[in-house]
Amino acid sequence: MLRILHQIFRTGVVTEPLPEDVESEVAIVGQRLEEAVRRRFRRSLAIREVDAGSCNGCELEIIAMNNPIYNCERFGLQFTASPRFADLLLVTGPVSVNMEIALQRTYNATPDPKLVIAVGDCGCNGGVFGESYASLGAVSNVIPVDAVIPGCPPTPFDLLNGILRLIEG
Ligand code: SF4
């Protein structure tokens, strides 16, 4: 225990703050998100993330939305473990053949009215993997999609902005 404490004090804070321009853009988008979430979802937008076959690059960026720098919970975005409590599905692709039924079941288990965003180039159009014997390509080939957030991978800021564009529109 003492060794761990010693290590913590010796290492100090290793995270880096965002560049100032990005920080202020996140603050602006965050403020609009908070307002839109309060208006349309009574202060809390529940998100279920579905990895339908990605390389996990997109997942790393989605997880980063929850880190102390982006801290998306302060804007009213919360991740839920069950689609039954979700307002929004955030789906990364490409959809592998093995995930087709699981994705359809997740979509069906999400209560109406529900929103779906396809994340990353692979989720939008199959990306570098495209369509093949193992891949169904875009998320929209399997379930209805309301919006897309392109990028390989999209940054946490792109994700916040993409969610804002959908729920503000
Ligand atoms: S868009 Fe890029 S990071 Fe995301 S799953 Fe596809 S290859 Fe990976």
The side-by-side strand order for the widest beta sheet comes to 2-1-3-4-5
Q: How much helix is in the residues?
A: 40-55%
Count of domain modules: 1
Query: Can you count the helices?
Result: 6
Shape: globular
SSE run: HHEHEEHEHEH
CATH class: Alpha Beta
Note the gap between the termini: 52 Å
- Quickly give the CATH architecture: 3-Layer(aba) Sandwich
Unique bound compounds: iron/sulfur cluster
The stretches of 5 or more residues where confidence is low (pLDDT under 50) are: none
Give the C-alpha Rg: 17 Å
Largest sheet: 5 strands, parallel
CATH topology: Rossmann fold
| Beta-strand residue fraction | 5-15%
Q: Please count the beta strands (DSSP E, at least 2 residues each).
A: 5
Q: Could you tell me the mean pLDDT?
A: 94
Q: What structural category arises from helix and sheet content? A: alpha/beta
Can you tell me about this structure?
Helix 2 packs parallel to helix 6. The chain has a single domain, classed as Rossmann fold (3-Layer(aba) Sandwich). The chain has a five-stranded parallel beta sheet, with helices on both faces. It is built from six helices and five strands, in the order ααβαββαβαβα. It is α/β, with parallel strands linked by helices. The longest helix is centred in the N-terminal third of the chain and has 22 residues. The structure holds iron/sulfur cluster (SF4). The site of iron/sulfur cluster has 12 residues, from helix 3 and helix 5.
Brief descriptors of the model:
Rossmann fold, 6 helices
Set out the fold topology.
Blueprint: H1 2-11, H2 20-41, E1 45-51, H3 57-64, E2 77-79, E3 88-92, H4 100-109, E4 115-119, H5 120-125, E5 147-149, H6 156-168
Parallel strand pairs: 1-2, 1-3, 3-4, 4-5
